[in-house]
Every structure is written in structure tokens, then in C-alpha cells.
Amino acid sequence: MPRTALFVIDIQNELAGHPQTEVPGAARIRSAGSQILRISRALADAAAATPPEEQQNPALTVFVQHEESPESGGTLVRGAEPWKLVFPPREDAVDEILIAKTTQNTFESNPDLADRLQNAGVDHIIAFGLQSECCVAETCKGALAAGFRLTLLQGAHSTYDDKQKTAADIERQIEEMLVSRGAEVVPWDSAVSRWETAGVVC
């Protein structure tokens, strides 16, 4: 049975957990992420308690964590407070994995990741997180290039304002770009409602 992977991209303290450095929409991202993970985990737990012959294939949740070298001058150094995840994986959850990366594209940083996902039955990736035009966009493009169906959760990704555009403008631009490449963009709350109806992240 086809399986979905839910990518939680770079929701780290630097970007969404420290008022001095977080993106303007951090509170929205934390709220959306909390509700998305609450439902996806509830569905995974329900699947685990279901007899194998009745189970739907539960989603694999992939927590992506960016890291920088101390020499780079960046703040996302392994072990540092800004590097830590706002939503860490559950230690006892077999369907939650942590993936480190050093480039914007998670698949580029992890050349075996596409094969690992496909071997686990994954054909569809649902993504949300930070930052829209950087690691979210590049990881989504990497997923499409690897042959996965891709859904981006609208309202659950964001970034910083820049000199020319607001974060909301950048979010819309990235959504339009990904749709032009074959992705689906769905409001995160609509997606969660669909999962609850289906009984599985899909």
C-alpha cells in the first residue's frame, strides 16, 4: 500500500523558538505544527493499536534539522540552543525519524534518502516548515526531482520579510512556483481534516 512521508522542515529555535531571531510568523508555525503533529501522531498510534490485517499504512514523519559548522560563523551548530528542534521526534516512535542536513535540499545532503523512503513504500511527501524560499522550496524541488508526489501545507510554512517582499508575498511565490512544477498546495487545516476522515495521513 502506498505510504506518505510528512516532512517537518527546520522548525528550530533560531527560526521559531527565540523571539529575538524567529520569523515574523513563528507563532502561526508553532500552532500549525502542533496541531498537524497532534493529529498525525494520533493516527499513527491508532494504527499501531489496530490488528495488522486491518491497518492502513501509517505515515513516516521525517524531522529535518539543519546544522552548520562552527567555522561557518552560523548559529545552527550541533548541540547549540538555536539548533534544537521546536518539535523533536518521539524517542519510542518507530514511524518518526530525524534527518540532519547541511544544504538547503534535504535530498542533496542525504543522497540515500530517496531510496530509503521508496524502500519504505513512500510515494507521497507532505511538507511544511521553514524557510519558505530556502530549505522548504529546495527540499520540495528535491522531492519532485526524485519522483515523489508532493503536497505543501499552506499556512504552515513561512520565512522572514526581505527588502522587497513580505514573508506572505514570499510564501505565495513559492507556492506558485511549486504548483508550476507539479506540486499540490493545500491549506494545512483542510489537509488535517482530510486525514481525520481517511484515518491516515494522505
Overall mean pLDDT stands at 96
Main beta-sheet strand count, sense and barrel state: 6 strands, parallel
What is the CA–CA distance across the termini? 12 Å
Structural class: alpha/beta
Strand content: 15-25%
* 3D shape: globular
CATH architecture call: 3-Layer(aba) Sandwich
Compute the CA-based radius of gyration.
Answer: 16 Å
Can you identify the CATH class? Alpha Beta
Q: Residue share in helices?
A: 25-40%
Structure described in brief:
It contains seven helices and six strands; from the N terminus they run βααββααβαβαβα. With 202 residues, the chain is of the alpha/beta class.
Write the layout of secondary structure elements.
Blueprint: E1 3-9, H1 13-16, H2 26-48, E2 60-66, E3 96-101, H3 106-109, H4 113-119, E4 122-130, H5 132-145, E5 149-158, H6 167-180, E6 184-187, H7 188-198
